[in-house]
């Protein structure tokens, strides 16, 4: 009898465990437990969303609830989440490029209802109706996404304007105001892509290395790799900002290029407009006075703030894009390609001698260009490249405040199409 009671008890417990989140993979159970606790009084809405999600959409609902920011756990309704899932999975069933996506890409770059800190609009039904007509006759994702890019300004009637109500303006608010800046325009474009099952995410930087500001744009996942595109489209991986992005400092988080992620990555998306905690990773003493004042104010506001927008460091990809564009662009008859490296000593064959420094190129005290030299961890065939005039005298100013480096080199270019320039600090 005791054995029978024990067996029945074990069976009841097993059934209870299995029915806690019916139809949901066990990998989400602990995450869901934690999310429901954080949701407090809104937990019933999340439980309703999970219970009412169709069987083939439950993983998506579990994913969203497991990883959504706490601000959303306490406010989003079941109706909001169910509608979002319904239209995301509708796109997955309808469009072949979405049906072919790996689950991980669909869940993180198609399914999410928001990008960064914008208001949580119910944009999916409207955007599906608006943008599905641009892709229904397209056989591949590239044609589909380019057709949306060419038509979105007219479709949503939103133009660039700094008079918008907020930087991270939500899509429906931007359409109401008919204006947005780069963050809002990128949110519009990314949501348009997601509405028809095209994986998309925001990317951007908190500050360019020339300290002329920041920027946000969109990325799309095409044939297994990420490419960037803008609201005012040129084409994939081409835009005015490539030179600025390509001069990002890989050793300074303020200047990194970030791509946003709904699922936590362990790295905050420091390009977010409401991410004053970026000041915590910035050496303020090295910034220009006006920029330093801005980040000192941000740091004051950052007390107790926890990151909830996550990201990936994609800096190197943009550096590589820029360097490829320099290499592939035609040289004028009087130009050469300079391959620059900064070295601590004359041991030029060892990567250990390489130093990552800012290199400013000047001619007659006028700035020509700048960039960041390769690090110890970079391939020995990797160089900082500049297009320069042949048979011309330049000043190369090498600096690294963290290592108290500040040195100027006089360099005269030759007459060949390429020239290696080694800036050796020990000389």
Features:
Papain-like_cys_pep_sf, alpha+beta, C8orf32 fold, four-stranded antiparallel β-sheet, elongated, 427 residues, single chain, five-stranded antiparallel β-sheet, Immunoglobulin-like, 3 domains, Transglutaminase-like, Transglutaminase domain-containing protein
Number of strands: 14
Largest sheet: 5 strands, antiparallel
- Percent of residues in beta strands: 15-25%
Supply the helix-strand structural class.
alpha+beta
Number of domains: 3
Could you say what the CATH topology of the largest domain is called? C8orf32 fold
CATH architectural name of the largest domain: Roll
Please identify the top-level CATH class of the largest domain: Alpha Beta
Mean pLDDT: 89
The percentage helix is: 25-40%
Approximate shape: elongated
| Radius of gyration of CA atoms, rounded to a whole number | 26 Å
List the helices and strands and how they pair.
Layout (H helix, E strand, L loop, with lengths): L1 H18 L9 H11 L3 H10 L5 H10 L2 H4 L4 H17 L1 H4 L3 H7 L14 H8 L9 H16 L2 E2 L10 H7 L1 E2 L1 H14 L4 E6 L9 E8 L2 E5 L12 H5 L11 E4 L27 H13 L8 E4 L1 H14 L6 E9 L14 E6 L2 E7 L11 E6 L3 E8 L4 E8 L5 E7 L3
Parallel strand pairs: 1-2, 8-14
Antiparallel strand pairs: 3-4, 3-6, 4-5, 6-7, 8-11, 9-10, 9-12, 12-13
